[in-house]
Specification:
5 helices; single chain; alpha+beta
């Protein structure tokens, strides 16, 4: 299944992405999140360590990390849903997180489970039944060390 060209252009164009965040995800806009890369297989999202994203313990606030981690999975999900031949709804129904060390720099969230997401969307359309897929996003700091791991449970249902 091919990613919708308009979505890929939007995600890869910082001005369009900022406008999307401003309209659909204002906290993403304020936090300074960026989609670094998006393909059918992988998405990478970054979030800076700055005044708006830090907590009183001088690390990136867990909710900011969760937002960026969700976008690393959700960007591919949105692309698949937007390019689907028939309408599909999507929703996160569960999230689990593990924090391994303090996030004291820019964090990059990587999800490389695009195929599982595409298969779930395709199966939702073909079977007309809700499909559940569990995908992982790993947060790494600028030194490449893992700071957090997130697991999102997405459900896709043909409308």
């Amino acid at each position: 299944m091919e990613l919708k060209q308009d979505f890929r252009k939007m995600a890869n164009n910082q001005l369009r992405l900022k406008l999307f965040f401003l309209k659909k995800m204002p906290m993403g806009f304020l936090s300074g999140m960026r989609v670094i890369e998006i393909s059918q297989k992988e998405a990478i999202v970054s979030v800076p360590f700055n005044y708006l994203t830090k907590n009183p313990f001088h690390s990136v606030y867990f909710a900011v990390q969760a937002m960026a981690a969700e976008l690393s999975t959700g960007a591919m999900a949105m692309a698949e849903v937007m390019s689907a031949k028939s309408p599909v709804s999507m929703l996160v129904i569960d999230m689990q997180a593990t924090f391994l060390k303090k996030a004291r720099s820019k964090i990059f969230f990587i999800c490389n489970e695009g195929k599982a997401i595409a298969d779930a969307v395709r199966n939702a359309i073909e079977t007309n039944e809700a499909q559940i897929v569990i995908v992982k996003s790993i947060g790494k700091d600028t030194d490449g060390e893992i700071v957090s791991e997130f697991q999102f449970t997405w459900t896709f249902k043909s409308k």
